[in-house]
Every structure is written in structure tokens, then in C-alpha cells.
Design brief:
By secondary structure, this protein is mainly α. It has one domain. It is built from 3 helices and no strands. The longest helix is centred in the C-terminal third of the chain and has 44 residues. It is elongated, with a radius of gyration of 24 Å. The relative contact order is 0.11.
């Protein structure tokens, strides 16, 4: 359930809509270098446009991992409680 809701708010959004043709042209010109073939944009131009969009995905992913950690911690605690109730002698060992 947590994973299915991870990027629910971003599914309908089109993050590339924020880039105009001028933004793309600027990125291509800015990252033009010796290693590019004329007519083909440099990989750095692509990364220049992509990295800010990937940054938008980072925070929700960290929140998802944190939430799943807490869920698993609760499951482990309840499992330990059940084990201890069945075998009280293991309490000190656990």
C-alpha cells in the first residue's frame, strides 16, 4: 500500500512541461563540447535537464523507506512479544 501511494501525486503531473524550447536550446548550447557530434546533443545537456526532475523524486522515496522501516519495526516488536509470551525463559536472551 505504501509503495503504491509513493508517487501517486506525481502520476498525473507532467514535469517536463516546465521546460520550454528555449530552456532546452539553452541547455544544448551551454553543454556543447568537443565530445559532441554536430547535430547531436551532449549527454551533459540531457543530465542538466533531468537531474532537477529526479531531485523531486528523492524526498518521497526517503519518506517511503522511513515509513516502511517503522511498519517493519512494529511487526518485529509484536512478533517478539508473541514469542516471549510463549517462552518466557527466552526473554533475557532476546
Amino acid at each position: 500500500m505504501v509503495l503504491s501511494d509513493l508517487y501517486a501525486d506525481l502520476r498525473s503531473a507532467k514535469p517536463t512541461d516546465k521546460y520550454t524550447d528555449m530552456d532546452i536550446k539553452h541547455a544544448i548550447i551551454k553543454h556543447e563540447g568537443d565530445d559532441t557530434i554536430p547535430g547531436f546533443p551532449n549527454l551533459d545537456a540531457f543530465l542538466y535537464l533531468l537531474v532537477p526532475l529526479l531531485e523531486l523524486l528523492k524526498e518521497p522515496a526517503f519518506e517511503c523507506v522511513n515509513e516502511i522501516y517503522h511498519i517493519l519495526e512494529e511487526i518485529a516488536a509484536s512478533t517478539l512479544t508473541k514469542i516471549i509470551s510463549k517462552a518466557p525463559a527466552l526473554k533475557d536472551e532476546l
